[in-house]
Specification:
Rossmann fold, binds dephospho coenzyme A, single chain, alpha/beta
Length: 283
């Protein structure tokens, strides 16, 4: 999501962290059925012990990912927005900030030491080499934070976590962890118009940004689920609600969860054995 633009949709919840969850896991481990009336009351994502999976949501620049993610958030889903993480890891004092200044010079800094996103954006969207350089600095840091946030949701027992990863199909690295992939699509003319309007860009600059990513049509072919956001927002919202219901009912496992629980049980058993064997007096 572009930071400075107001949302055209009602009640945008400002994220307090990278995670945009507004729902807690249900102590009952079940979820009320999704009905039109309950769409925007908070319906928490359910907790079923031992089961969790990751959903990778992506799309093209300005195709509507952040707008869609807000609906998932309103439905109570655990959501992580990678663009927000990307902003966090380049703050002054963080290793990526220092490395960006080393690589791009102080001209990419504002007076207060923050990264000048407009200047850096103009540089990298027009020069593939510099874009790859920036990616090589930021992506490892983004990845670490993303893992941490996902793990927190995992410990809290969420059934699934939706990660908004703009470059999911370009970098491919995280694909293997995604049980489902979702592409937010819109036709090219609509994407261009929305991007130019939202970011106040010339046609040429907007096209350069679109070209910095894989064509949306290719992403559509690679995805498990496609949400078509070319038309009225209400049509998109309905598709999101239906997909949410589908994901809620899918029974898929993240083996990591069982692995961690087994590991913890093993450590506790070992400690118990050591304590009873060495510390407690023999009868
Ligand atoms: C270049 C930067 C400074 C521009 O900042 P700006 O505030 O104008 O845009 P914002 O961060 O909101 O990103 C908007 C969209 O641009 C696209 N985008 C961002 N970075 C890239 C990139 N390296 N390559 C292709 N597309 C990108 C994504 O679709 C993203 O959703 C910023 O995007 C950045 O630091 N990018 C590098 C980190 C990154 O790769 N982020 C994408 C998440 S994987
Ligand atoms: N169905 C729609 N009808 C009209 N405008 C829309 C619709 N969907 C999204 N928009 C507008 O299009 C712009 C892009 O949407 P959004 O910010 O959600 O895209 P994004 O994919 O998250 O962008 P980015 O890649 O920059 O993070 C925003 O100004 C948003 O308000």
């Amino acid at each position: 999501m572009h930071a400075s633009m107001p949302s055209p949709f009602p009640a945008e919840a400002k994220p307090v962290s990278f995670r945009r969850s507004c729902g807690e896991p249900s102590p009952l481990g079940s979820l009320a059925p999704v009905t039109p009336d309950s769409w925007f009351s908070i319906s928490p994502t359910s907790l079923l012990p031992g089961k969790m999976f990751l959903v990778g949501l992506t799309g093209g620049i300005a195709s509507g990912k952040s707008s869609v993610i807000q609906v998932f958030q309103q439905l109570g889903c655990a959501v992580i927005d990678v663009d927000i993480i990307a902003r966090h890891v380049v703050q002054p004092g963080y290793p990526a900030h220092r490395r960006i200044v080393e690589a791009f010079g102080t001209e990419v800094l504002l007076e207060n030491g923050d990264i000048d996103r407009k200047v850096l954006g103009d540089l990298i969207f027009n020069q593939p080499d510099r874009r790859h350089l920036l990616n090589s600095i930021t992506h490892p840091e983004i990845c670490k934070e993303m893992m941490k946030e996902t793990f927190k949701y995992f410990l809290r027992g969420y059934r699934y976590v939706i990660l908004d990863i703009p470059l999911l199909f370009e970098t491919k690295k995280l694909l293997k962890y995604m049980k489902h992939t979702v592409v937010v699509y819109c036709d090219r003319d609509t994407q261009l118009t929305r991007l130019m309007r939202r970011n106040n860009l010339s046609r040429e600059d907007a096209e350069a940004r679109i070209k910095a990513q894989l064509p949306l049509k290719d992403k559509v072919r690679m995805a498990h689920h496609v949400l078509d956001n070319s038309g009225e927002w209400s049509v998109t919202k309905r598709q999101v609600v239906l997909l949410h219901a589908e994901l809620e009912h899918s029974l898929e496992y993240l083996p990591l969860r069982l692995g961690v629980l087994t590991g913890l049980a093993g450590i506790v058993s070992l400690l118990y054995l050591l304590l009873t064997h060495y510390l407690l007096p023999s009868p």
